[in-house]
Amino acid sequence: MRIDRIILRQIRMPLVHFFETSFGRTTSRDILLVEAVSGGVSGWGEVTAGENPFYNEEWTGSIWPIVRDYCAPRVLGRELESAEAVSPLTAHLRGHLMARGGMEAAVWDLEARLLGKPLWQHIGGGARKEIPCGVSIGIQDSAPELLDKIERELAAGYQRIKMKIKPGWDVDVVRQVRERFPRIKLMADANSAYTLADADRLKQLDEFYLMMIEQPLAHDEIIDHAALQARIQTPICLDECIRSAHHAGQAIRLRACGIINIKLGRVGGFREARRVHDVAQAAGVPAWCGGMLEAGIGRAHNIALSTLPNFTLPGDVSASRRYWSRDIVSPPVETTSRGTILVRDQPGFGYELDLDFIRSITVREETVTA
Ligand code: NPQ
Ligand code: MG
């Protein structure tokens, strides 16, 4: 496979509802789409960085020059054995895994299309034809608003509720949710809002038999998570901390987590995501697919990834309509009344692109050639 050109597009999409985490509120997304072209065939990827360097260090402003000046030139005009070869070609970069992963995912999609295969099959997935779905619910202006939202998502069939927490929006609110919904699968995500000094407060959450608490401590701190896990019963799930299979192995060895959230962008693409998956699976650690408020391409890639066997817990991959009034793929991603997404068999990521709509929301475009 030889890639002739790579087209970058930044699209702007307002969210249906603001999304608030411990690090701030997001109301609109600027997303970088990567189109990799070989002959007349295109593969597509989505870079999952946020608008600000708050979730991790990457952001809309950093990913454009990284893909244009450092990632695309490494793959353009050279004979690629397979999409597996892309990640090693950018491995000399320090960090910038989401930028690297967005381009890598585009090449996986391209290769699947060249072979006429669905992406899930091309990455070695296919363990399930239906993906179990949960939702991630942001911090709300009041507890009653959160309870209402949860009620609506459960009525739509979602199998698991994740609520965002932070100091001041934690034990009390979780208690209210548990009192109202005693039997649901419930978990909390702190996005690194606590330190080990908060261990007693985090221990109070044990009372609510959460499925897990996600990334309570610093984004780059595995050892403190091990110390916290030794003090609390609720399983810790690591998100931000796990940027590679190596990190996954270390976190598991140190007993810093009992569950791993795998995000395609955070680990730098499909190659590393599969390696993280394999490390977790070999250790008997369950995994699930995280979300980054993706548009349709990223959402479809997450669905393909979620067909690998060890994605045994409901993930944060949910319907397009929870985020967008109109998505860039057609049909939009939809869920069944059982709270699942049906895996599609079309080549590549399995959905049609709405190119007219993409054009209408593009705020920046640039083509890179060999
Ligand atoms: C998480 N996502 O699991 C992330 C965090 C997150 C669905 O909970 C812009 C872009 C804002 C990506 C805010 C979910 C974001 C973002 C939060 C990702 O931790
Ligand atoms: Mg998280």
Tell me what the structure shows.
The protein has two domains: 5-116, Enolase-like, N-terminal domain (Enolase-like, domain 1, 2-Layer Sandwich), CATH 3.30.390; 121-342, TIM Barrel (Alpha-Beta Barrel), CATH 3.20.20. The protein has twelve helices and 15 strands. The protein has helices at residues 60-75, 86-89, 97-114, 119-122, 143-155, 171-180, 199-203, 222-231, 245-253, 270-282, 296-305, 355-360, and strands spanning 5-21, 24-38, 41-47, 130-132, 134-137, 160-164, 186-189, 213-214, 236-238, 259-262, 287-289, 329-330, 340-342, 352-353, 362-369. The strands form four sheets. Strands 5-6-7-8-9-10-11 form a seven-stranded parallel sheet. A four-stranded antiparallel sheet has the order 3-2-1-15, sandwiched between helices. A two-stranded antiparallel sheet has the order 4-13. Helix 1 (60-75) packs across helix 3 (97-114) and helix 9 runs parallel beside helix 10 (270-282). The mean pLDDT is 98. The structure holds N-acetyl naphthylalanine and magnesium ion (MG). The site of N-acetyl naphthylalanine has 14 residues, from strand 1.
Average predicted local confidence, pLDDT:
98
> Helix proportion of residues, in percent?
25-40%
Counting helices, strands and paired strands, the structural category is alpha/beta
CATH superfamily of the largest domain: Enolase-like C-terminal domain
Tally of distinct domains: 2
Main sheet specs: 7 strands, parallel
Strand content: 15-25%
Strands of the widest sheet, in order across it, are 5-6-7-8-9-10-11
Rg for CA atoms = 20 Å
Number of helices: 12
CATH class identity of the largest domain: Alpha Beta
Could you say what the CATH architecture of the largest domain is?
Alpha-Beta Barrel
What is the H/E string?
EEEHHHHEEHEHEHEHEHEHEHEEEHE
Shape: globular
End-to-end C-alpha gap = 14 Å
Low-confidence stretches: none
Number of strands: 15
| Small molecules bound in the structure, each named once | N-acetyl naphthylalanine, magnesium ion
CATH topology (level 3) name of the largest domain: TIM Barrel
